Amino acid sequence: AVGAPILVIHHSLFAAPDRLLRDGKGKPLARETVDRDLLDWPPMLARIQEGLRLWGEEAHARGVLLALETEVTNSERLLEFLRQANPAYVGICFDAGHAHISSDAVALARQLAPRIVYTHIHDNFGKGAFPGRDADDAHFPVGVGSIDWEGVLQALHQAGYRGWFNFELYDPYTAKGSRIKLQRIWDRLGHAGAATP
């Protein structure tokens, strides 16, 4: 309706409504529930695969490309989630910060690169950075955390990625500096003119 060419979604959309956990105000806590369900409730994988297939077909009919976002858990399973979805209709939104918490951002970028159609760019200190608590999805500017941006950009370029680099930062005033840092890395890798972050 608004003319957007890409719709970013989360696999939590396909959780069975009667299995959603809710907070004290009744708001669904789908992300946490889906992660549990993927491990404890075998039908969840089938729901995700079939949902992405159907949603992809509907999105295509409406001129929209779906992008399934990497999460802070289960990101290494995204290709499995997309198994039934047409690659022309459904791809992956590579969220660098989530990938860094989920596993290793560079390794995950290499694994998922052929299906990446969009990105969310932000930094953090990754999995295990803060012993005794979950990693912080901090949405720092590029270079403030510990993501290997050169490795991530190299993986994307080698896969032929020519899409957008969308900065998803808590402080919008840091986007310009992040863009400059990303552009310098891209150029240093010898890709000047090939694509512009």
Description:
The protein is of the alpha/beta class and 197 residues long. It is built from 7 helices and 5 strands; from the N terminus they run E-H-H-E-H-E-H-H-E-H-E-H. Helix 3 links the parallel strand 2 (65-69) and strand 3. The mean pLDDT is 88.
From the structure above, extract its key features.
197 residues; alpha/beta; 5-stranded parallel sheet; 5 strands; 37% helix; globular
What is the number of strand segments? 5
Question: Portion of residues in helices?
Answer: 25-40%
Please state the oligomeric state of the protein chains shown. single chain
Low-confidence stretches: none
Distance between the termini: 27 Å
Major sheet: size, sense and barrel closure? 5 strands, parallel
Across the major sheet, the strand order is 1-2-3-4-5
Q: Count up the helices.
A: 7
Strand content: 5-15%
> What structural category characterises the helix and strand content?
alpha/beta
Radius of gyration: 17 Å
Mean pLDDT metric: 88
H/E order of the elements? EHHEHEHHEHEH
The dominant shape is: globular
Please summarize what this structure is.
By secondary structure, the protein is an alpha/beta fold. It contains seven helices and five strands; from the N terminus they run E-H-H-E-H-E-H-H-E-H-E-H. The two termini are 27 Å apart.
Write the layout of secondary structure elements.
Elements: E1 6-9, H1 30-40, H2 43-61, E2 65-69, H3 78-81, E3 90-95, H4 96-102, H5 105-112, E4 116-121, H6 149-158, E5 166-167, H7 175-188
Parallel strand pairs: 1-2, 2-3, 3-4, 4-5
Helix pairs in contact: 4-5, 5-6
